[in-house]
Amino acid sequence: KRQRIEERGGVKEKAGSEEDDAAIVHQQKLQSELEPSNPRNIRITSIFFQEFDGLSCPPPEHPTQHVFGDKYLIERLGKCDFRVSPGAFFQVNTVAAEVLYGRVVDCVRRVRKEGRKIVMFDVCCGTGTIGLTCLKEGVVDRVIGVDISEPAIRDAVENAKLNGMGDGDGDGDGQVNDRASQCKWIANKAEVAMKD
């Protein structure tokens, strides 16, 4: 079956089910409504669609379809900028998170002994916010972040780069002062990753 689908600048013939065609028309309408020239001045930065027919929330790796805008959000938290993808966990209340992370930094600073290196195991690290904040503040020397969410770990690697913490993958020459060796990110269950 063929159905006419309106598209900006003309009409396009599209083969497919009525459901697919309706989704395409809806997507095109949505995109045209969200363009910067929109007189309603809607402030939406990104839209993703995700289908899931399970009983609960989909896993973080479940595919999403980028429809409009930026593919990632960039959020400032304390002295760091963080990239956040659709499948990654991030503290939505940044003001409260900054207070919490400030307390973490203060606690680590109080227990830090002069001349000793501190390695932080950031379990359920998400996008790396706590570990990278502690590195930026100079209270830890290395972060090993573990999270079950692969999208979050990919964001943590990018966030290490974004904040000048090296390549973020832990493949440096092993020296603590080497930025590339300051971060290691592991996408796995914490009980598996920390077994060894």
Key attributes of the depicted protein:
196 residues, alpha/beta, 3-stranded parallel β-sheet, two-stranded antiparallel ribbon, 5 helices, 9 strands, elongated
Describe the 3D structure:
Mean pLDDT is 79; it is low at 1-15 and 170-178. Helix 2 (94-111) packs across helix 3. The chain is built from five helices and nine strands, in the order E-E-H-E-E-E-E-H-E-H-E-H-E-H. A three-stranded parallel beta sheet has the order 7-8-9, with helices on one face. A two-stranded antiparallel ribbon has the order 1-2. It has 196 residues and is α/β, with parallel strands linked by helices. Strand 7, helix 3 and strand 8 form a beta-alpha-beta unit. The protein starts with a strand and ends with a helix. It is elongated, with a radius of gyration of 22 Å. Helices cover 31% and strands 24% of the residues.
Read across the widest sheet, the strand sequence of neighbours is 7-8-9
By DSSP, the count of extended strands is 9
Low-confidence residue ranges: 1-15, 170-178
Question: What is the mean predicted local confidence, pLDDT?
Answer: 79
Order of helices and strands: EEHEEEEHEHEHEH
Can you summarize the main beta sheet?
A: 3 strands, parallel
Helix fraction by DSSP (H/I, runs of at least 4): 25-40%
Round the Cα radius of gyration to an integer and report it. Answer: 22 Å
How many helices does DSSP assign?
A: 5
- Summing up helix and strand content along with how strands pair, one would put the structural category as alpha/beta
Strand content: 15-25%
